[in-house]
Design brief:
Helices cover 39% and strands 14% of the residues. By secondary structure, it is an alpha/beta fold. It binds zinc ion.
Length: 202
């Protein structure tokens, strides 16, 4: 478990997309019609915005590398995402995705950390003031390697994490598990309240 006394209040939340913001699909999300937000997820992003916390999307989109969708298709999906998010007064401050396949030698695909580090660099925010919310072991491995607080949500594809036991998640260094993004955001605000009230770390 992370020693939360040493953590600064969260100023940046990195978000995986599929299985966190919208329902995931084994066939990839290839069009705006296939993009369906998970209940409460868009309002949760708006709550982060309202709390003055930056948000950045860090999404593996290997479907592009596989030729299943184009960068233009992805942009169209994100137009819908942006529009539905704006309807609840929410926004994503930075959009990042990795278009490469697992067998490419890129450094952006999670569990590699280039996307996460790029976002923190962009906002000049340190890893100990950053949380990453994801639905897979790969996300948590990336969060831990980048030094962020990892929060695993249970809204992903069931094969990705329901098999993780408490011991395994401890070994992986997964700090928090939340039912969904809404609960993850609640956790983040609670942690911030604690770090505010406890003052400077000992
Ligand atoms: Zn990549």
């Amino acid at each position: 478990m992370t020693d939360d006394c040493t953590r600064k209040p969260t100023r940046l939340v990195l978000l995986d997309r599929d299985g966190v913001v919208n329902s995931d699909s084994s066939d990839y999300i290839k069009s705006p019609e296939e993009w369906h937000p998970i209940a409460g997820s868009l309002a949760a992003i708006a709550a982060l915005n309202a709390a003055g916390i930056y948000t950045a999307l860090c999404s593996n989109q290997a479907g592009i590398g596989r030729g299943l969708l184009s960068a233009r298709d992805l942009a169209a999906i994100h137009v819908r995402f942006r529009r539905e998010l704006a309807d609840v007064n929410g926004r994503i401050d930075l959009w990042r995705y990795c278009p490469h396949t697992p067998d490419s030698a890129c450094t952006c695909r999670k569990p590699d950390t280039a996307m996460l580090k790029d976002c923190m660099q962009e906002f000049q925010i340190s890893p100990n003031a950053t949380a990453f919310v994801g639905d897979s072991v790969k996300d948590m491995q990336a969060a831990i390697a980048a030094g962020c607080l990892g929060i695993l949500v249970r809204t992903g594809k069931s094969d990705q994490h329901t098999a993780i036991s408490e011991n395994e998640s401890r070994e992986l260094g997964i700090t928090w598990v939340a039912d969904d993004l809404a609960q993850a955001v609640e956790l983040i605000s609670r942690l911030n309240l604690q770090s505010d009230s406890s003052g400077t770390p000992p």
